[in-house]
Design a protein that fits this description.
heterodimer; A: alpha/beta; Rossmann fold; 6-stranded mixed sheet; 4-stranded antiparallel sheet; 8 helices; 25% strand; globular; B: alpha+beta; 15 helices; binds adenosine-5'-triphosphate; binds magnesium ion
Chain lengths: 235, 427
Amino acid sequence: METRALRRTLGSGENALEILHGLDVVIQPGEFCSIMGPSGSGKSTLMYLLGALDRPTGGQVLIDGIDTKALSEAALADVRNRKIGFVFQFHYLMPEFTAEENVALPMRKLGLARRPALERARELLGLLGLAGKEGRLPGRLSGGEQQRVAIARSLANRPLVVLGDEPTGNLDTKNGELVFALFERLVREQGQTIVVVTHDPRLAARTDRVVRLQDGKVVDDGPARAVLARAGERS
Amino acid sequence: MRLLPLFGIARRHLLHSPFRTALSITGVAIGDCFMVLMSALMAGFETKFVDETVESSPHVTMLDEFRDPPDEFAGWLSDQEGGLVAVESAHPRERVYRIKKPYETLAAIEERPGVAAAALNVVGTSILNFGNREVGAALVGIDPERQDRVVSTDTYMIEGRLADLHSASGAIVLGSGLAERLGVRRGDTIGASLRGSGEAGGREGSTRALRVVGVFKTGLVPVDAVRAYTLVSLAQQLLGLGRDVNRIVVRLDDHTTAQDVAADLEAMVGYRSESWQEQNQNFLSLFNIQTVITYVVTSGITIVAAFGILNVLIMLVLEKLPEIAMLKSMGYTAADVTVVFMLEGLAIGALGVVFGSIGGYWLQQLLASFPIPMKGLIEIEHLIFVDPPRIYAVAALVSFASTVIAACLPALRAGRLDPVVTLRGRA
Ligand SMILES: Nc1ncnc2c1ncn2[C@@H]1O[C@H](COP(=O)(O)OP(=O)(O)OP(=O)(O)O)[C@@H](O)[C@H]1O
Ligand SMILES: [Mg+2]
């Protein structure tokens, strides 16, 4: 998965505003990568582009070698379904569906029948420490539990990459740690590729690589420890 | 597109807010219910009117005149282009109208297949008086036994019998409205003014005493208000017609064929022959107008209900913005999302129509059970409903279609929503 000279302009004409000014980022399979940067630097925008929710106005996004720019709406949706798992800051679970049904939703879209989809959903929820809470509605789960359900859902279709946009932004330290511990386990044990936006250097330190964005440009990119050390020196 | 998971999502949305769902369904149901109710009521009135009319009026009436007056000199003159003469006001030729050779004609009509019975009538207007009250009446001279085979008359008698016309020399049977206006009952003696002309006619301006031997009530207000029956001979005297007959009334095996038969008879005999439909054209066209009005009003109700659905679905879509974004991020397409909301509209429409039809049926039974006397074109004791399946089908179709159309707009909008806009707005 990579971006080449990625640009994204919002609006058009006089109101046009370029948010990303030519990003080149390559995400390796099995990589646990965090993206950092001040508010408004374009982290979310980058995530939407990497996740095929949005199309670049310049440059390219290649997901598994496929250029998203050339794809139709429906084909983009299919890419999201098969290859991408999203986790957002706000959990965005369907309030009318139980935990396991929420996790089953992407599988149902893929074409899996209800029964096997729910079976795999329970398996994933068990893996994330939610055994026994599969039948609960989101309203009856804590914030941390809801976020773990969302992670389970992002993993449902064995995606190429899990994209997390500040997935711990709404959680307390303990739950944030728990989520990152889960990510680490997924990367180490299952070789899952994960890209996650975070403001917390301590959480970023647990990842392999940190990409720092500022004003829509990559200002630093490298092993987590080195990038964080350089950032620490500067401030 | 795999529909099953979409069904599941739509179902959950609807079940998750049962009150809102029930409210939307009720909206559709009320529209549908009233459309059924109004249509059934209108059909009820029309059916009642037609039933009473074909029972108490001849199916075909042969008159003593021609559709195109054959010898109008004035008409011929004014048809001449560039003529030197212009006719300003032509006075129609004085002539006595009558049906020639009535018995032969009657026999010929009765021969025709499809004709159940026929009778000779003498009709004209006569002024009846009782004390100082004077009322115009449509006098019909009949042979009671023959007449009853053509037009049910005896069954409508509320006082006396039709055969009582034979009981006295000056016997008359009055419509209930007519009797009421004169203020008479069975047994009273009233006066009828005599017409001058004709061989057997009396002196101009003199009156003849008549005895009221019966009163009838068909329920058709315009009939009951003016019609009076006497024997043929008495009517001929009162109207000054000598021995002439000016109507032949016909009953058919099937009243719906009246227009065809009337045209046939007219072609056969030449005299103007009118079907009951032609004679009641004014009223029948009134029913057409009434049907249009009914549909306009009930469509209004349906449109209001549709706006309700539109409103509810727009609210639903706005409320579900984050979830729509989420569904799309999971790979659900715009079409998927549109289908989810369309399914919700379809479900609301279908359930609304089912409950509306049940409600419409039930309300008919309820309203028909109350005594609600009314007197208009027809006189009734309680509301009459006629509900052929067509009424339910039309109401269901209109209600369902308007719901689906109302659902289209929010559903399409939901599908087109850009998830990125929603996500940016929150994170
Ligand atoms: N709808 C919009 N129209 C114009 N500019 C926008 C719009 N949405 C966001 N922006 C701008 O785009 C830039 C990048 O936004 P983005 O959400 O990617 O930043 P971010 O790094 O995710 O910030 P945060 O850490 O606060 O989430 C910001 O400068 C923001 O002001
Ligand atoms: Mg952001």
